[in-house]
């Protein structure tokens, strides 16, 4: 018998009522989108809840913002200087990595270009050179630019910038939480109505 993942549950005896089959089918709709990766069954929740993750994100960002607001100027100077040192190390490391990559690529490209092949494998050679021509070392320029930007800012500018970034991140998390709470509220209304209405299904005996 040809069947779907849903109707197979009727065939194998896991689903025995129309109400349960309707519950399984509801998994294909957005109201149960968070359960899409779970095994198909009639076990669906009667009420959905906002995942703890969304509340945790707001709490973490709020604590970070409160912490940063209370830093003294001395602490901001220390944080700024540490940031400059970290960026400088990153720039130096990425620059050296790019130099090493360039040398390695050039060495291989030169060797292949100077290969006096018989012509039988010209397509392979051309393909190899084409791949090499599309390959470039990692770009570290953006790190250099970031370092210059921070140095121009100074610790006071960095303080304002960092506080703004943290505040924006907090507001974003709050907005996402609000949206998720509204989404869950709408889904619960839909789910409650669905469960009430399938209660009116008249089951037929075999």
Structural overview:
With 206 residues, the protein is an all-alpha fold. It folds into two domains: 8-49 and 188-198, no CATH class; 52-186. The protein has six helices and no strands. It has helices at residues 8-11, 18-26, 52-69, 73-113, 122-133, 141-198. Helix 3 runs antiparallel to helix 6 (141-198) and helix 4 (73-113) runs antiparallel to helix 5 (122-133). The two termini are 19 Å apart.
List the helices and strands and how they pair.
Layout lengths: L7 H4 L6 H9 L25 H18 L3 H41 L8 H12 L7 H58 L8
Strand content: under 5%
Helix content: 55-70%
The tally of beta strands, per DSSP, is 0
- Unreliable stretches, pLDDT < 50, 5 or more residues? none
Overall tally of domains: 2
H and E string: HHHHHH
Given the helix and strand composition, which structural class is it? mainly alpha
Q: In angstroms, what separates the terminal alpha carbons? A: 19 Å
What count of helical segments does DSSP give?
6
Q: What is the general shape?
A: flat
Mean pLDDT: 90
Q: Could you state the oligomeric state of the chains shown?
A: single chain
- Characterize the main sheet: none
Provide the gyration radius in Å. Answer: 30 Å
Keywords:
mainly alpha; 2 domains
Summarize the structure in short:
The chain has 206 residues and is mostly helical. It contains 6 helices and no strands. It has 2 domains: 53 residues, no CATH class; 135 residues.
């Amino acid at each position: 018998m040809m069947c779907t993942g849903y109707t197979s549950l009727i065939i194998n005896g896991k689903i025995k009522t129309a109400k349960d089959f309707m519950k399984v089918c509801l998994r294909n709709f957005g109201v149960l989108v968070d359960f899409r990766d779970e095994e198909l069954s009639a076990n669906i929740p009667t009420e959905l809840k906002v995942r703890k993750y969304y509340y945790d994100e707001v709490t973490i960002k709020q604590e970070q913002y409160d912490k940063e607001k209370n830093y003294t100027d001395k602490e901001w100077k220390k944080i700024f200087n540490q940031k400059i040192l970290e960026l400088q190390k990153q720039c130096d490391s990425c620059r050296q990595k790019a130099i090493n990559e360039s040398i390695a690529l050039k060495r291989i490209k030169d060797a292949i270009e100077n290969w006096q092949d018989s012509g039988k494998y010209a397509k392979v050679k051309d393909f190899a050179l084409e791949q090499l021509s599309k390959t470039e070392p990692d770009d570290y320029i953006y790190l250099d630019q970031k370092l210059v930007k921070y140095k121009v800012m100074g610790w006071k500018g960095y303080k304002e910038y960092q506080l703004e970034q943290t505040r924006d991140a907090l507001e974003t998390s709050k907005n996402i939480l609000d949206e998720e709470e509204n989404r869950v509220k709408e889904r619960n209304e839909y789910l409650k109505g669905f469960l009430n209405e399938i209660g009116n299904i008249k089951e037929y005996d075999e």
